[in-house]
Amino acid sequence: IYERFDGETLFFAFYYQPGTYNQYLAARALKKKNWRFNKQHNAWFQRLKEPTYVTNEHEQGSYIWFDHAMFHEDGSRGWRPRVR
């Protein structure tokens, strides 16, 4: 059933239900949607196109990532996808 949820719902389940089976199911569904979790940044990343440089330790390229603790220009706090 988690595969049917949109990204924002899955991110909510992942970040706001830590240590639960729901978090596990959300993570599994995000991986099926080609998102990858980076433990160092505590963030989910998805490739926008193939990386320009790849080694066993890292890769460089264009990505979208989900920033769950972002502060916005208007002073509000909330999540949104970001592109780099």
Structural class from helices and strands?
Answer: alpha+beta
Overall pLDDT metric: 84
Give the strand line-up of the largest sheet.
1-2-5-6
Radius of gyration over C-alpha positions, nearest whole angstrom: 14 Å
Write up what this structure looks like.
This protein is α+β, with helices and mostly antiparallel strands and 84 residues long. It is built from two helices and six strands, in the order ααββββββ. β1 (36-38) and β2 form a beta hairpin. The longest helix has 12 residues, at 21-32. It is globular, with a radius of gyration of 14 Å.
Secondary structure elements and pairings:
Layout: H1 7-16, H2 21-32, E1 36-38, E2 43-47, E3 53-54, E4 59-60, E5 63-67, E6 80-83
Helix pairs in contact: 1-2
Keywords, separated by commas or semicolons:
84 residues; alpha+beta; four-stranded antiparallel beta sheet; two-stranded antiparallel ribbon; 2 helices; globular
In short:
The protein is about 25% helix and about 25% strand.
